[in-house]
Specification:
This protein is α/β, with parallel strands linked by helices. It is 43% helix and 13% strand. The protein is built from 16 helices and eight strands. It has helices at residues 3-9, 12-15, 29-33, 43-56, 85-92, 112-115, 136-148, 165-175, 194-208, 226-236, 257-264, 271-282, 286-289, 295-302, 308-318, 325-335, and strands at residues 24-27, 60-65, 100-106, 126-131, 152-157, 182-186, 214-218, 240-243. Helix 9 links the parallel strand 6 and strand 7 (214-218). Helix 4 (43-56) runs antiparallel to helix 12 (271-282). It is globular and about 55 Å long. The relative contact order is 0.12.
Amino acid sequence: MSAKAAKHRDTPASRWISFRPEIKVVDCTIRDGGLMNNHHFDDKLVKAIYEVCVAAGVDYMEIGYKASRKNIKQGEHGCWKYCCEEDIRRIVGENKTALKLAVMADAERCDYHDDIPPKRDSVVDMIRVATYINQIPTALEMVKDAHDKGYETTVNLMAVSTVPDRELNEGLEMLAESEAKAIYVVDSFGALYSEQVHFLVKKYLHYCKPSKIEVGVHMHNNMQLAYANTIEGIIMGANYLDATLAGLGRGAGNCPLELLIGFLHNPKYNLRAVLECVQNHVEPMRRKLLWGYDLPYLLTGLLNQHPRTAIKFKEAELKDDKGDILDFYDMVTEQD
């Protein structure tokens, strides 16, 4: 290599067109998007997203929840709320591909001892445990149970924007002793700015690195920062990255998978396959599901509130009961 070529390779600009092989991309479209339609996705759509994850070189596909089936109302939720083995296999068969499959289990909402079988009996590869800070003892039991059954595990520590710093330190100290493969910074309310993501990923790494646990990021787009905050996480060293096709997810949605893949510059990922699926399968659902940035979601993000009130506002709009955004602003600021 010439001296000129070597100098060019070492410039800041050239480093942006390289890639970090440790990075893992997790598609959460069916799981997070299912929060907008009670998980009533038909098999054709789930199959299409599975196939595009395979074609695009995505590392993991999160196909839904492992929620408790006690006291359920018939038809209230689709099958991706529960992810029974027969339903998953109906889509993926034996999944003889490089794509790994994941499900999410919420702390205190999953009968994990009974509903999560040993890995040898399941096509699922990873159990992602979602927990609030006060549920960490239960989450640790769930992680150990899944690990002992043979699964990879992660912990998604939800609503971190609401957790006092001292409690977060104590929680991370406990989680860093677990069998988890990665611990996630989760911006549940879409309330974080880049400086906060920088601070949090650095903090998580402080606790996780000694235990060789990776850090992940899961962002929501209330303030149109899901993509930017995911990039900030990458820059700071997060290697597990959640995203969804066209950003499909609860409320304002998530970091769009097509943007993330375009940014990563890893030749293993196929952007064209993602674009085709977004065009033909995901975007046609937008008018009905109403995910994505909008003023009500902006306001709940700015106020660090759960987006449930904004979702109700949008649902009323769908029924032609168009609300007044100023009335909504007055309501949520009074709550705050």
